[in-house]
Amino acid sequence: MSMTYYLVQLGCQMNISDGERLRTVLEDMGYRAAEHEETADILGVVACSVRQRAIDKVYSRIHKWNQWKKDRSLLTFATGCILPADHEKFLDRFDLVFAITDLPKLHEMIREYGVVTEASIRSMQATAHGLPEAESSGDYWKIAPSHTSPHEAYVPIQNGCDKFCSFCAVPYTRGREVSRSSDEILAEVRSLVETGYRVITLLGQNVNSYGRDRNGSEITFAELLDRIGRLGEEHSHAFRVYFTSPHPRDMEIEVLETIARYDCLGKQIHLPLQSGDDKVLIAMNRNHSIARYREVVRNIRRILPDATLFTDIIVGFPGETERQFERTVAAMCEFEYNMAYIAIYSPRPGSRSARREDDVPIEEKKRRLHRLTGELQRISGAYNRSLIGTTVRVIVEEQDRKPGYLSGKTEGRLVIRFPSEDESLIGRFVAVRVTAAAALALEGELVSDAHGTRLQAGGDADSALSAGQPVTAGSRG
Hints:
The protein is α/β, with parallel strands linked by helices. The protein is 35% helix and 20% strand.
């Protein structure tokens, strides 16, 4: 009977991507995924120290797992984004705690802990026959990921960050910026495209500084996108490529112009704002002004007029006054975001802002969160309603929560659902006519299927499917 593992993944898309490589290593050792954590032999967590709520989930999980050890044999481990203070506490709670860059050594760690796996048996057999033991260290990016989706994949292009925003833990959990080889990135993207993947997201803490740590020996982010765009022109297989997240300070026009040139580069930009006030941005050590941010947004609107715009915002940063918060509200209205991920500030031990007094009361933080959320819903709702009657190209992702419906995303990554029970459409592009809109979602009717077969009269759905873009676009009025 094979041994099993259960993995808990918390935090951002980078942690999800790391978890996919972690699955590969565990399965190479002979473990198989368990459906329920109660039945697994090894329990692991890809942790996130960036938000207190995420780290609280880790402590809750390991407390439960350690209780189970009273009744059965278990091995527990933690990896991911872990601050030094959390790392010290984890050492007393987990059996193994390791950096994700040490992933290639995991089978050695488990063997040294005394657990015999298929990989350790192979290693011992090779040693007995005088064969060289497999290399256990090296670049963890070289580990092929075990993708959890058959049509969507994440491709990391860098690790770490050099920006040192005062609220952020990433430089302390992942270290300084390290760019992955562009040859490796392009080979992985090509393989995904040839395998049939439809949506690919390039990941990094600051993707548009890609290559700058290589002292001129690597291409720029714009050049990387250009090579991926050319790859898209070589293939009849339709796919979309996105990236997250860029930094406003480093967002160059060349990146936007490259996205405009190629159909396979998704017309959606995630541009973190964090605050609409210059003094708060200085306290956050963001190293850009609202004027610089405004310049970037103007370039996006000029070069990519149909692109959607997403952002990140923190409310209740230490010292944020009501007037400063109102400037963030004004920025929300000015830049007309389609989506904003709004977070209540919580200090993380080790980050620079944690040294400041957390002086904005929690009830005030919640009020500011609700105020901004209301503005977001008003703005995004108006944009979504402008799409009613248009036909958009959609990648179908899953069955919707509403029975009898499928849901997916437009090129601008707006959520849309439509009536259909044809699960064969999942993972394919279809044309959908928008019939209704809410603040953060759309609803429509299927116009043509994945093969371009028209299902409803009216609209230019066939050309939408062949061109790889919406037939018509909404207006920001």
